[in-house]
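User: My instructor asked us to take a sequence, write out its structure as tokens, and then describe one feature of it. I'm not sure where to start. Here is the sequence I was given:
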Amino acid sequence: MLVGNVHLIAGTADAIPHILALLKAEGIKIEANPDIYVREYQYFSVDDARTLRERASLRPVGDRRVFVIVAPDMNHNAQNALLKILEEPPADAMFFFIVPAPETLLATFRSRAQMLVLDTAAAEEHSIDAKAFLAAAPPKRLDMLKPLLEKDEDDKRDIAQIIGFLTALERRLEKKPEGLHAIYRARKYIGDRGALVKSLLEQVALLVPRV
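Assistant: Let's start with the prediction itself. The structure tokens for your sequence are:
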């Protein structure tokens, strides 16, 4: 059951079908519904934020409007432009923001939202085993990272899968804080435009102690 009006999801556009399925389970019509607004951005600007504000202020055709926004890159000005409308969503509007690394967003933005964890079991089947990674020597770890560093036909890496891997490592190292610094650093910068993903992951492989 969905609680609250503003949700943050760590991921990519692949999460959209899961969100729509959640809405359908809540009894919200998702087919041919003008109140469902789904958009994927490469770069979410302050102008995009203003457009979203305007759309959210419109009266819904049905009971409520739902906005599903995929924003791999959302600058601080855009986040600030949304703060008021997220704090007091008009006409029971519901927002879902899908971003690679929610923890990199402004604290004021995150405080107005709830983290929504989707069922990513299928994706994890293709991820790296965190336990095996931590038990391996650095050369083996570097080899294990290769699938995460592969790029698709658009020359992009699956940032959501990388973040999921880092989160799994973090959970495994809860009782060994000395190994968390490199992971925290990678999670902080991995979603930045122009981030050196390969270097960040290699630092994790080399600096995190074997467990």
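For the description part of your assignment, you could build on this observation: The chain has eleven helices and five strands. Try explaining in your own words what that tells you about the chain.
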